[in-house]
Structure formats: structure tokens, C-alpha cells
Give the backbone structure.
Amino acid sequence: MGRTVSVDEIRDLDLLTIGMVNDMYAELNNDDYKYATVASQTDFDLF
């Protein structure tokens, strides 16, 4: 899963809310997780 924002410098954090930073950190930790079941495009279309 890709992130739309990457923080390269500490001053960039001023542009983000704490919630956005928390979400980015959580997604960073999930990037390498191997899920047993992954939804397909058909699954999303049915949703």
C-alpha cells in the first residue's frame, strides 16, 4: 500500500495533523505484512 505523503524533513510535519501522521506510521508498519486473503477488484465492485 502506498502513502500519498512522505515526510522527508521535520518541518514538513507542520503541514500535517497528528491524525495524518499516526495514519502514515500505521500504514508504514503494515506495508510488509502478508495478508492471507486480499480483496480483488471484483470484490470491491461488489462492495
Notes: The mean pLDDT is 79. The two ends are 19 Å apart (CA to CA). Residues 18-30 form the longest helix (13 residues). The chain is about 40% helix and 0% strand.
